[in-house]
Amino acid sequence: MNHGLLILLIVHIVCAVIWVGGMVFAHFMLRPASLALDPPVRLPLWRRVFERFFPTVWVLIVLLLATGFGMMFLAFGGFAGAALYIQIMMGIGIVMMLAYAHLYFVPWQRMRRALDAGNFPGAGAAMNQIRQIVTLNMALGLIVVAVAATGRYWG
Q1: Which pLDDT score, from 0 to 100, does residue 76 have?
Q2: What is the DSSP string of 114-126?
Q3: Buried b vs exposed e over 28-39: b needs ≥16 C-beta within 10 Å?
Q4: Which CA distances in Å does 121 have to 73, 94, 97, 135?
Q5: Based on the structure, what is the number of domains in the chain?
Q6: CA 122 to CA 141: how far, in whole Å?
């Protein structure tokens, strides 16, 4: 493997770990801990968390796409030359990115507007939609990690 390809792979792996790891942390650590807080405290906390995490995810998505397509064409000569596990990773990754875009542009915007209006029930409903999408994306991300780690051994 040449140095350029190795750098693409390292950046790709680090970006995936940050995104999936962030979702795991939010879902299994931060969410349960925050449930002890009343909605007027909990929901603004989540807003502050998301205001930091969501821009990072956009950068990660750009880097994941750039490094993924870069490796696809530099290492495999395009989609036709890529192994099935590589194509599965890319397909699931694109689904994750689309789900994230929906999360960002629909329930996240609803949550922000509801909090700005002091509408905690509305913000809570939007937060529940965000939680559902994050749960889906976290599960898909963990599947991608498993595929990435084992795919070359599928035979």
Answers
A1: 87
A2: HHHTT-HHHHHHH
A3: eeebeeeeeeee
A4: 48, 32, 28, 21
A5: 1
A6: 28
Spatial contact of 31 and 131, defined as CB atoms under 8 Å apart: yes
Query: Residue 155: its pLDDT value, please?
Result: 81
Give the pLDDT band (50/70/90) at residue 30.
Answer: very high
Angstrom distance (rounded) from CA 67 to CA 19: 15
- The SS3 assignment for 155 reads coil
Residue 106, pLDDT score = 98
Q: What percent of the chain has pLDDT over 70?
A: 99
Burial class (CB in 10 A: 0-12, 13-18, 19+), 9: middle
26-41 mean pLDDT: 97
Residue 82, domain extent: 3-153
User: In the 8-state DSSP scheme, what is residue 66?
Assistant: H
**Which element (helix H / strand E) includes 11?**
helix 3-25
Q: What is the pTM of this model?
A: 0.94
- Token pair 């995936």 in the structure block, residue: 16
The continuous run of DSSP H or E covering 94 comes out as: helix 84-105
94's tokens: 């694109």
Place of tokens 């084992």: 150
